[in-house]
Amino acid sequence: MYTLKKQVGHARRGEFKTVHGTVQTPAFMNVGTVAAIKGGLSSYDLKDIRTQVELCNTYHLHLRPGDKLIHELGGLHKFMGWDRPILTDSGGFQVFSLAKLRKIKEEGVHFSSHIDGRKIFMGPEESMQIQSNLASTIAMAFDECIQLPAEYDYVKQSCDRTYRWLVRCKAEMDRLNQLPDRNNPHQMLFGINQGGTYEDIRIENARLNAQLDLDGHAIGGLAVGEPKEEMYHIISVVDEYLPRDKPRYLMGVGTPGNIIEGVARGIDLFDCVMPSRNARHGHLFTWEGIRNLNNAKYEKDLLPIDPQCDCPVCSRHSRAYIRHLLRAGETLGQRLTVMHNLYFYNRLLERIREALENDTFEQFRAQYVDVLDTRI
């Protein structure tokens, strides 16, 4: 259940109650693709860096260790030692991005595993069954992720099919939640708005999705190479047609500046692999901008990554030491940089929530929206 506590323009400060705890929104969901954060962070580390929600990948967990095994072991929360909310994506993005050989039909998608090449079929029902076995807090509907640019007619055809798939997802999730052996019989379902950069398709799809009694609504298919101004425009267009009393989730976005602008346009939830992926290559987010620890000027620098940050890494280690670890190929270097970047993102959303509560969001936005995305 989502409760809107305060609204500043289109920006929303809310609470999202789930069976696994209440999420303070806006919030950033830390991405643990195979039930782990790449970079060596455990579920216990995530609590230390103020993570509220972890996102896991349906496609990868289905391939290994297998969703049926996870179901047998008590579900994803028990499996990975995490007692806060988990969102699982539908597997759609990976089916369309990783699978080289695929064939889309009305019933679903036939494709080959990127690991061993074995033939797999996934449709709306199969995606829901896998996510039900994982027993995540929130399941995502199965959709087609369109590669941009795309012709209008194809986008329209794909979007219509994605909506028909959503109807099937909802029916199957309702059925699964009634089964006596479910580890989470209160699993939620979010629909996904698609439509490329075509306003009319986006609006029609948002209207149709809003008519279904879903637990939340996501905006997908953005941040795939289009100009950021175009992405912001589509978010603003879709915002007008989404239910006020349900959380909105912008999938796969993005930079700190993207997040600030997304909040300003009514988004409640975000996820992105970028902070952890960039961290593993020495690119660190700070309140002064993006710092590249690979630069020689940090070789003797005893300051923390960010003097304004109170994360466990900045409290204990210097830029010089972490740079040494990264250049030496020590895994500790990646662990420390990932921990810092994810803490920064979690703290960024905390500060956004504080600014909304204090009626200072526009000042915060003006101060940080550009600088946080700028390389030092």
TrEMBL record:
<dbReference type="GO" id="GO:0008479">
    <property type="term" value="F:tRNA-guanosine(34) queuine transglycosylase activity"/>
</dbReference>
<dbReference type="InterPro" id="IPR036511">
    <property type="entry name" value="TGT-like_sf"/>
</dbReference>
<protein>
    <recommendedName>
        <fullName>Queuine tRNA-ribosyltransferase</fullName>
        <ecNumber>2.4.2.29</ecNumber>
    </recommendedName>
</protein>
<feature type="binding site">
    <location>
        <position position="143"/>
    </location>
    <ligand>
        <name>substrate</name>
    </ligand>
</feature>
<keyword id="KW-0671">Queuosine biosynthesis</keyword>
<feature type="active site" description="Proton acceptor">
    <location>
        <position position="89"/>
    </location>
</feature>
<dbReference type="InterPro" id="IPR050076">
    <property type="entry name" value="ArchSynthase1/Queuine_TRR"/>
</dbReference>
<comment type="similarity">
    <text>Belongs to the queuine tRNA-ribosyltransferase family.</text>
</comment>
<feature type="binding site">
    <location>
        <position position="311"/>
    </location>
    <ligand>
        <name>Zn(2+)</name>
    </ligand>
</feature>
<feature type="binding site">
    <location>
        <position position="221"/>
    </location>
    <ligand>
        <name>substrate</name>
    </ligand>
</feature>
<dbReference type="GO" id="GO:0008616">
    <property type="term" value="P:tRNA queuosine(34) biosynthetic process"/>
</dbReference>
<keyword id="KW-0862">Zinc</keyword>
<keyword id="KW-0819">tRNA processing</keyword>
<feature type="binding site">
    <location>
        <begin position="89"/>
        <end position="93"/>
    </location>
    <ligand>
        <name>substrate</name>
    </ligand>
</feature>
<feature type="active site" description="Nucleophile">
    <location>
        <position position="271"/>
    </location>
</feature>
<dbReference type="InterPro" id="IPR004803">
    <property type="entry name" value="TGT"/>
</dbReference>
<keyword id="KW-0808">Transferase</keyword>
<comment type="function">
    <text>Catalyzes the base-exchange of a guanine (G) residue with the queuine precursor 7-aminomethyl-7-deazaguanine (PreQ1) at position 34 (anticodon wobble position) in tRNAs with GU(N) anticodons (tRNA-Asp, -Asn, -His and -Tyr). Catalysis occurs through a double-displacement mechanism. The nucleophile active site attacks the C1' of nucleotide 34 to detach the guanine base from the RNA, forming a covalent enzyme-RNA intermediate. The proton acceptor active site deprotonates the incoming PreQ1, allowing a nucleophilic attack on the C1' of the ribose to form the product.</text>
</comment>
<feature type="domain" description="tRNA-guanine(15) transglycosylase-like">
    <location>
        <begin position="11"/>
        <end position="369"/>
    </location>
</feature>
<dbReference type="Pfam" id="PF01702">
    <property type="entry name" value="TGT"/>
</dbReference>
<dbReference type="GO" id="GO:0005829">
    <property type="term" value="C:cytosol"/>
</dbReference>
<feature type="binding site">
    <location>
        <position position="194"/>
    </location>
    <ligand>
        <name>substrate</name>
    </ligand>
</feature>
<comment type="subunit">
    <text>Homodimer. Within each dimer, one monomer is responsible for RNA recognition and catalysis, while the other monomer binds to the replacement base PreQ1.</text>
</comment>
<keyword id="KW-0328">Glycosyltransferase</keyword>
<feature type="binding site">
    <location>
        <position position="309"/>
    </location>
    <ligand>
        <name>Zn(2+)</name>
    </ligand>
</feature>
<feature type="binding site">
    <location>
        <position position="314"/>
    </location>
    <ligand>
        <name>Zn(2+)</name>
    </ligand>
</feature>
<dbReference type="GO" id="GO:0046872">
    <property type="term" value="F:metal ion binding"/>
</dbReference>
<feature type="region of interest" description="RNA binding">
    <location>
        <begin position="252"/>
        <end position="258"/>
    </location>
</feature>
<keyword id="KW-0479">Metal-binding</keyword>
<comment type="pathway">
    <text>tRNA modification; tRNA-queuosine biosynthesis.</text>
</comment>
<dbReference type="InterPro" id="IPR002616">
    <property type="entry name" value="tRNA_ribo_trans-like"/>
</dbReference>
<feature type="binding site">
    <location>
        <position position="340"/>
    </location>
    <ligand>
        <name>Zn(2+)</name>
    </ligand>
</feature>
